[in-house]
Amino acid sequence: GQNIDQPTEMTATEGAIVQINCTYQTSGFNGLFWYQQHAGEAPTFLSYNVLDGLEEKGRFSSFLSRSKGYSYLLLKELQMKDSASYLCAVADSGAGSYQLTFGKGTKLSVIP
Amino acid sequence: ETGVTQTPRHLVMGMTNKKSLKCEQHLGHNAMYWYKQSAKKPLELMFVYSLEERVENNSVPSRFSPECPNSSHLFLHLHTLQPEDSALYLCASSQDLGAGGDLDTEAFFGQGTRLTVV
After folding, report:
1. pLDDT tens per residue, range A26-41
2. How far away is chain A from the Cα of B82, in angstroms, using its nearest Cα?
3. pLDDT value at position A51?
């Protein structure tokens, strides 16, 4: 099985930087995804990491350390529209399944 | 605008009713999924279809019955549901089926159907 942990809620100020952490345990790691979900809307893809290191995409970056079972999503120059839930999801080939297993999500509130 | 469309967006049904949720994807993807999202719980995978064949059923009660008539359409038939089944039901699709490994398993989600069972 898998255990994916991320903080339930975070608050940050507009213009600041925030880091959302995700830790996981898998039997056969095969990739980690971050999704953004605004209230009442569909989750949308943000990033994908399968190798160690940092992937940068505009204001958003995602980091992975496979040996530590750890990832983070870094959001820079926060905007009010970044208020949303951020979902960490792990693909586990060792489970013999085709699914992504999601964490409970981190609800980020950006305040002026 | 999403390439995955779900209808209805909201549904209220009694425990003795029969209803169906519909999902349609316009992305040419080969795999489709049903997820359940309850308050304060992670997204739970319910069913997986690849090229219209069901490849995974995550111990979902038989009161939920999926149907995939073609690679673009996915249905979830509901009957004799319980109040605890009230949740957001999300449909997703991906180019290919697989446990990650590359971006072809990136899931594109629909807007979801907010289901309330009374």
Report:
1. 877 888 999 999 988 8
2. 22
3. 92
Q: Point out the residue among A31, A42, A45 whose CB comes nearest to the CB of B111.
A: A42
Phi, then psi, of B102 in degrees rounded to 5: -165, 175
Q: Supply A68's token pair.
A: 């530590």
The C-alpha atoms of residue A100 and residue A87 are separated, in whole angstroms, by 11
B2 Cβ under 8 Å from any chain A Cβ: yes
Strand order in the sheet with A3-5: A3-5, A18-25, A70-75, A60-65, A53-57
With a cut of 70, list the residues of chain A below it in pLDDT: 1-2, 93-99
Helices (H) and strands (E) in chain A, counts: 0, 11
Chain A residue numbers touching B109 (CB-CB < 8 A):
35, 42-44
Nearest to B22 by CA among B63, B75, B61: B75
Token pair listed for A78: 């926060």
